[in-house]
Model the fold of this input.
Amino acid sequence: MPGLEGTANPTKVVVHPLVLLSVVDHYNRVATSSKKRVVGVLLGQVEGNSVNVANSFAVPFEEDEKNPSVWFLDHNYVDTMRDMFKKVNAKEKIVGWYHNGPKLRSSDLQISELFKRYTANPVLVVIDVQPKEIGIPTNA
Done:
């Protein structure tokens, strides 16, 4: 499959500040007044056991509030955006995905399986857009 990078499980994830700002902006545009979660794609490089996340983009995502196993992620949009980002920076590949948490959900495994069509070992970064304490608001 095109774009499949890295075969080992990464042990270190570096998230650039631009990504954190993009996720917070995504959340503020889409879900501030609701309990919806936002989902997006992480772009960067896999180098050995390290993932360098330098960029991201938001993805249309809907989830049934009553049944979390029912969700929709527009993978055609992901394909289109991946192709456009490839024209701007060919070194950046899809390395995983993010959501605003604050906790893992049962559907996260299914979504990670979907991202395996883009990268062998997709990284999930949970970014808390409303942190309760000072620090870097991420878990990977």
